[in-house]
Amino acid sequence: NAEPFQVAVREDNCIIVSLEASDVVSSSSVYVVKIAGESKNYFFQFDEFNSTLPAPVVFNAKYHGLYYIVTLLVVNSNMVSKSARSVTVLTKPLPVSNVSIYDYKPSPETGVLFEIQYPEKYNVFTRVNISYWEGKDYRTMLYKDFFKGKTVFNHWLPGICYSNITFQLVSEATFNKSTLVEYSGVQHEPKQHRTVPYPPRNISVQIIPISRNNWEEHSGNFAEESFMGPPEIIRKEKVSQPSASPSGIPAANTSAAWLDDPSNSTEDEATSRPSWWSSEAESSEGEEEFVSAVSSAYEASDAKTSGRATAEPPPFLPVQMVLTWLPPKPPTAFDGFHINIEREENSTEFLTVSEDTHKFVAELKEPGKYKLSVTTFSSSGSCEVRGSQSAKTLSFYISPTGEWIEELTEKPQRVTVTVLSSTTALTSWTASHESSGNSTIVSVLSLTCQKQKESQRLEKHYCTEVNSSSSLIENLVPGAQYQVVVYLRKGPLVGPPSDPVTFSIVPTGIKDLTLYPLGPTAVVLSWNRPFLGVFRKYVVEMFYFNPSTMTSEWTTYYEIAATVSLTASVRIANLLPAWYYNFRVTMVTWGDPELSCCDSSTISFITAPVAPKITSVEYYNHLLYVTWTYGGDGPDLSHSRMLHWMVVAEGKKKIKKSVTRNVMTAVLSLPPGDIYNLSVTACTERGSNTSMPQLVKLEPAPPKSLFAVNKTQTSVTLLWVEEGVADFFEVYCQQAGSGQETKVQVCVSSLVSTL
């Protein structure tokens, strides 16, 4: 009946392996323990023994929550090992160290967000066990959908106190069709959380006038029987804003006289029952009664009456307010309702009634604007008290004459804005027949103003919301974008806002666009803007034929941020010479979508050509051959605005020759003997550019047809014909038969000489 070898896991995560007597097969054998589960296997040998069993093998497991397979190996004298038996054990995971519980914002009534922290290194688990008390019921469940320590529960009950919430990490392993499960301990502080209850339903209010006779008869002495039942108020609080009341008199006294509640006692009014408080709540069951716990009495005071009460009734006749509601939708756990009554935004009554109360009756003794809200609260259990969200806030107005103006719930429909001019617009909308008599509030806000730096704002009137009763919107600024919201108003009550409508005013555009040429490849554009206007930027565009893409289109060249300056300019460079350009400057707004103006702000210009460069000049046979280049290697002038070339040779005579733009050579017939200033000019419609002049000196041609006339013994007259240009002629005379040359005359300016 001996037990096989034993394997146990201690609290310090050590695995203890003990050899039992039934495991011993031979005293000459060696007993080895093999432990598998981590990245490598571990082997441990039991100490040699005779009659007494060896000490246990202790293995310090690195991983928590991991299963290990422990195998006993028996090695005989022939060094043959045999697996005797195997045992699977599971270590315990490390516990959760910290827990946080938050409301699940999309649904705080039924959802919570759990966030747990635990040691991550060498800690293995498959699921998380969550245990808690749901009210008086104990719940536990296994959950595995944790991502980075967070998960969302969205199936709790609203208003319930969930207490003693604990988390345990669970490790599971299956081996040989058997499942091992280990739970971590609980080391974190148990948590508690109350879900938010649902709000009450179908909240409504009704105002009932009280006749003067009835009010005079019962003023300050209301009996319980005059209302629906005994008071069901559990708790009442008053919150008042500080007022300018005389020192020594509580500020709450000045705003306490607008709500009356019938008391169950008429004796000692000054101390036990305030004369200004009279309210009543009706229980839907009518079975249980709660002790009325009204606030301490206040004494009405008025600095002008010097504390002396008047017997005359106030000019305003009180009215009866009946507030009704239905309990929240099931299954909501709740313990009562909070009633919040606010008057003129400076005095608030906060009352608490039981969960069976679904009606509250009170008398309002002062006119003004009132706001009512009813919320559910849950307080049972050890969790903190939580109230529901306000499902609906009721607003109404009691006029000094006792007229009841109900809350406006309708919002204007189909709001449209029609722009009449650059500074005015007209708002229109539709409303139901019942609301056609109500007045309106038109709220205007500039969206452009919010996008600009304060130092660069060009319009300031609608930087904050401006409300007006007129449908005509004035003082608008060209280029700005506005948002309009319309409210219906009846008395001091304002209804819900309409859907916002956005409209934009088209900018007026620039003026006085001027172009200043800076050469063949650059110009300067300058312009002015109107004083009244708002915009985001200037956009400078140009239109030209692009020889790279073989297309003509408008392209943006530069964008200039808006400034307060009325004048702006930009330099445009890298233009093509002798090319047609059209420039446009538009103003672009901040709106979405952007608006721009105006396409008509354009100016056209033909750039000047670059100067040609004379490359070759040759004079042959009374003809001058001139060759030049233009703008680099082989430019394509097919789309250029170049008209022609003008070749000019200026000496004593000025000779011009026009050459077509596709030819860059010319032949000039120049008289010999002169010095010429040679230049080539590139010509366009609006400008020209001339090459560097080149000096050309032509050799003089010899005279033609020399004649000797009037011969005498001592003289002879010579005549000759001039060809070209000559400043003077040199005449030489040599006696025939002698080798001596005699210069008779050096300079002769005429074509006749007598020797």
UniProtKB/TrEMBL annotation:
<dbReference type="InterPro" id="IPR003961">
    <property type="entry name" value="FN3_dom"/>
</dbReference>
<dbReference type="GO" id="GO:0017147">
    <property type="term" value="F:Wnt-protein binding"/>
</dbReference>
<feature type="region of interest" description="Disordered">
    <location>
        <begin position="237"/>
        <end position="296"/>
    </location>
</feature>
<dbReference type="GO" id="GO:0004725">
    <property type="term" value="F:protein tyrosine phosphatase activity"/>
</dbReference>
<dbReference type="GO" id="GO:0090090">
    <property type="term" value="P:negative regulation of canonical Wnt signaling pathway"/>
</dbReference>
<dbReference type="InterPro" id="IPR013783">
    <property type="entry name" value="Ig-like_fold"/>
</dbReference>
<feature type="domain" description="Fibronectin type-III">
    <location>
        <begin position="411"/>
        <end position="508"/>
    </location>
</feature>
<dbReference type="InterPro" id="IPR042996">
    <property type="entry name" value="PTPRO"/>
</dbReference>
<dbReference type="InterPro" id="IPR058859">
    <property type="entry name" value="Fn3_R-PTP-O"/>
</dbReference>
<feature type="domain" description="Fibronectin type-III">
    <location>
        <begin position="608"/>
        <end position="701"/>
    </location>
</feature>
<dbReference type="GO" id="GO:0072112">
    <property type="term" value="P:podocyte differentiation"/>
</dbReference>
<protein>
    <submittedName>
        <fullName>PTPRO phosphatase</fullName>
    </submittedName>
</protein>
<dbReference type="GO" id="GO:0098978">
    <property type="term" value="C:glutamatergic synapse"/>
</dbReference>
<dbReference type="GO" id="GO:0098982">
    <property type="term" value="C:GABA-ergic synapse"/>
</dbReference>
<dbReference type="GO" id="GO:0005886">
    <property type="term" value="C:plasma membrane"/>
</dbReference>
<dbReference type="InterPro" id="IPR036116">
    <property type="entry name" value="FN3_sf"/>
</dbReference>
<dbReference type="Pfam" id="PF26586">
    <property type="entry name" value="Fn3_R-PTP-O"/>
</dbReference>
<feature type="compositionally biased region" description="Polar residues">
    <location>
        <begin position="240"/>
        <end position="256"/>
    </location>
</feature>
<dbReference type="GO" id="GO:0003093">
    <property type="term" value="P:regulation of glomerular filtration"/>
</dbReference>
<dbReference type="GO" id="GO:0007411">
    <property type="term" value="P:axon guidance"/>
</dbReference>
<dbReference type="Pfam" id="PF00041">
    <property type="entry name" value="fn3"/>
</dbReference>
<dbReference type="GO" id="GO:0045296">
    <property type="term" value="F:cadherin binding"/>
</dbReference>
